From TrEMBL:
One GO location term (cellular component): extracellular space
Record organism: Channa argus
InterPro entries in UniProt: Olfac-like_dom (IPR003112), Olfactomedin-like_domain (IPR050605), Quino_amine_DH_bsu (IPR011044)
Record domain Olfactomedin-like: where: 193-470
GO annotation terms (biological process): signal transduction
Pfam families referenced in this protein's UniProt entry, alphabetically: OLF
Chief place where the protein resides: secreted
Localization: Secreted
Protein name: Olfactomedin Olfactory mucus protein
Length: 470
């Protein structure tokens, strides 16, 4: 059916067509017939332009189709316009914090200054290392830092140097310098199995036991005393359960030996804080019994605490790094986050470690080495390494032979060790696939013990132990 508007258009075209052909006047003669004047004339010169009419009609119909299609597109665009506007506003809001780059350049004066300060500190550390041991490694470090200094100077005058690449190079050099000065050269030799390299296999659970307070308390940590040369607590087993909201705790239970632990007899309870909100309270499943002291993450802080079982004294040290995560800032996650598991204290053949994440390292795992000065009665942090593994992308972590191992969730009954970072070399390996069988879904803590090379898991109220093989 042709629309009224199209009818009017066709009539107009017909009128125009009628004037497009030249008409010629005819002279004819007439005759009288029955009282009327009759004449004959030829209509050849007034023939209707049928062919052109059909062509014009076809063009008009085509034009109508195009107009209708265009109208549909316009209506669709009008309907989509609010959605497009909302997207543009959202993108604009996200880009707003970076508008300063348009007129201030890629690198701000503050970021360059902080980068320069880190580089200056690294230069001082390498000079100190070079004075203590002038060897090929320290000489190479000096050359690499010199090149990095030139890149930083270029960044002050142009945007041609990649800030991310410079920071990654700085991280690598800092880790290399830490490795040069921190780990005793003979520590791997003292434990020959460490020389074999990474862990090659982990057994099925060799101990399976419900926690002393029942499986309703799903967060905590446990294990065997971890200091190899300890005398006072050489064979002790311990359990630290988080009693308040599965986050906070202030007590420790210690068994004299394995038999007492399995029978849940002959234990001693220690209280190291007066309440769950005391500054000495433990936060998160982070503890390890090392010698005659419990090391753990202090309540709502970036500090590590040391509780002495003999004197009940508590000493503390603040972890290094810009913006150390605590109070559920960077917990272990992967599948489900373990609430307030930001800071993890571990032990291995080389001593004590803290595993955590910082804002300065973009939420990636950081490893710091802890040292107890028995003469000065002070807890110190000697060195720090930064990795490229995002902490919330792992379910837990532990240390073995100076190597950081990280796990991830596979299913309700299995975890997997998939990543390793060697503090002695700064090298990473994310190709591991070592299974850890479990009996419940959640993993509150994992810790390794160098005295028997076993790994201890607090598995949602269950206490599991595994044997590590090299």
């Amino acid at each position: 059916m042709i629309s009224p508007a199209l009818n009017m258009l066709l009539l107009l075209l017909l009128v125009l067509l009628s004037f497009t052909y030249d008409s010629q006047a005819q002279r004819v003669s007439g005759r009288r017939s029955n009282g009327s004047c009759v004449c004959e004339m030829s209509s050849n010169t007034l023939s209707f332009p049928v062919v052109k009419y059909e062509a014009v009609l076809e063009q008009v119909q085509s034009c109508e189709g195009s107009l209708n299609n265009l109208q549909d597109q316009v209506m669709f665009s009008i309907q989509r316009l609010p959605q497009i506007q909302a997207v543009v506003e959202n993108v604009t809001a996200q880009l707003e914090p970076f508008q300063y780059l348009h007129y201030k350049g890629l690198y701000t004066a503050l970021s360059l200054r902080l980068l320069g300060e880190d580089l200056t500190q690294l230069e001082a550390d390498i000079i100190s290392l070079h004075s203590q041991s002038n060897n090929a490694q320290t000489q190479e470090l000096s050359k690499e830092v010199g090149k990095l200094r030139k890149d930083v100077e270029r960044m002050k005058t142009s945007n041609t140097v990649n800030m991310k690449a410079v920071k990654e190079k700085l991280r690598y050099l800092k880790n290399t310098a830490e490795s040069c000065k921190s780990i005793p050269k003979d520590f791997r030799g003292r434990d020959r199995y460490c020389l074999k390299g990474l862990i090659t296999n982990i057994s099925n659970p060799i101990i399976t036991k419900v926690g002393p307070l029942g499986k309703t308390y799903i967060s905590g940590s446990w294990g065997k005393q971890a200091q190899v040369d300890s005398h006072g607590q050489k064979s002790s087993y311990w359990v630290q359960t988080l009693l308040s909201s599965h986050i906070y705790g202030n007590t420790l239970r210690v068994y004299q030996n394995y038999e007492d632990f399995m029978a849940s007899v002959n234990y001693k309870d220690f209280t190291f804080a007066s309440s769950y909100s005391d500054s000495k309270t433990i936060e998160g499943p982070s503890a390890v019994l090392y010698g005659e002291a419990l090391y753990y993450h202090c309540y709502r802080s970036a500090d590590i605490c040391r509780f002495d079982l003999n004197t009940n004294d508590v000493k503390r040290v603040t972890l290094p790094g810009t913006g150390v995560g605590f109070n559920n800032k960077f917990p272990y996650c992967y599948y489900d986050c373990r609430i307030n598991s930001d800071v993890d204290v571990e032990a291995d053949e080389t001593g004590l470690w803290a595993i955590y994440a910082t804002m300065g390292n973009h939420g990636n795992l950081v490893v710091s080495r802890l040292l107890w000065d028995s003469d000065a009665k002070m807890l110190n942090v000697s060195q720090m390494w930064e990795t490229r593994l995002f902490k919330k992308a792992v379910s837990n972590a532990f240390m073995v032979c100076g190597v950081l191992y990280a796990t991830r969730y596979v299913d309700e009954y299995r975890e997997e060790v998939f990543y390793a970072f060697d503090t002695a070399t700064g090298k990473e390996d994310n190709s591991l696939a070592l299974p850890l069988e479990k009996v419940a879904k959640g993993v509150a803590s994992l810790s390794y013990n160098p005295t028997n090379r076993q790994i201890y898991m607090y598995n949602d109220g269950y206490l599991l132990a595994y044997q590590a093989f090299f």
